[in-house]
Amino acid sequence: MAQDYVEKIFDVKADGHCGFRTVTYSLGRGQDAYIKIRNELHSDLLAQKNFYLTQGFFHKFDNMAKQIQVDNDKPCGIDHWMSMPSTGHILVEVYNRPVFYFCHSWSQSLFPSTCGPNDNPPIFLALTGSRHFVALKMMNESLFPAPQYEKKWEQIATPEALKWRDNYSRLSELTNHLKLEIGFWGIDF
After folding, report:
1. 34-47 vs 61-68: helix axis angle to the nearest 10?
2. CATH number of residue 145's parent domain
3. Quick check: is 188 in a domain?
4. Residue 28: how many CB atoms within 10 A of its CB?
5. Interval 101-122: pLDDT, tens
6. N or C: which end of the chain has fewer CB within 10 A?
7. Of all helices (H) and strands (E), which one includes residue 137?
């Protein structure tokens, strides 16, 4: 059902960097600035190590740091592919915007835990059945069936950050309505 709310799917180059390419595309930087995105995420991860460890989203911090960092722009193997929702937790903090991740097996809405709502547009991305990330443009960025949000987020979010949940409450209502109406909230990108 989520795909019924998608206006356009942006296919990016499939070279192992596709997840990061979707982020750069979503941020309006085109798909080729993915090395810069990787570097920004890696730098923040290292600079805010204690913050990310206390959040409890990463079981193996060093593995996450190695996964994000690459030495060149050549195609990369699975060890450097984007891992969701783990990378999503870094994305929301670095870029101060929600990330809506769609996948046939597990989808997630991720919100920043340290800043309140702002005018930064969300990042929408999906993992296809062939394990390729694509960027999404929703018909309406304020009304679409949203995946469940990380329950642990409520425990770590600042009071200001918890307002993200209120800003997107209509999405949860739509999602629940559709689940009741069709019995299953299927995603197939």
Report:
1. 160
2. 3.90.70.80
3. no
4. 8
5. 999 888 899 999 999 999 999 9
6. N
7. strand 133-138
DSSP state, 33? G
134 in a structural domain: yes
State which residues form the domain around 122.
Answer: 2-182
Find, among 33, 36, 7, the residue nearest to 21 by Cα. Answer: 33
Helix (H) or strand (E) holding 184: none
Q: Is-above-0.85 flag for pTM?
A: yes
How much is the average pLDDT of 79-97? 95
Looking at the domain assignment, is residue 170 inside a domain?
Answer: yes
* Count: domains in the chain: 1
Query: Encoding tokens for residue 7?
Result: 């206006």
Q: 3-state DSSP call for residue 83?
A: coil
Mean pLDDT for the stretch of residues 75-98: 95
**What are residue 4's phi and psi, to 5 degrees?**
-70, -15
37: helix, strand or coil: helix
How many whole angstroms separate alpha carbon 11 and alpha carbon 167?
29
Q: What is the distance between the alpha carbons of residues 149 and 172, in angstroms, rounded to a whole number?
A: 9
Please give the Cα distance from 64 to 33 (Å, whole number): 20
User: Would residue 187 count as lying in a domain?
Assistant: no
Token readout for 159 is 């009071």
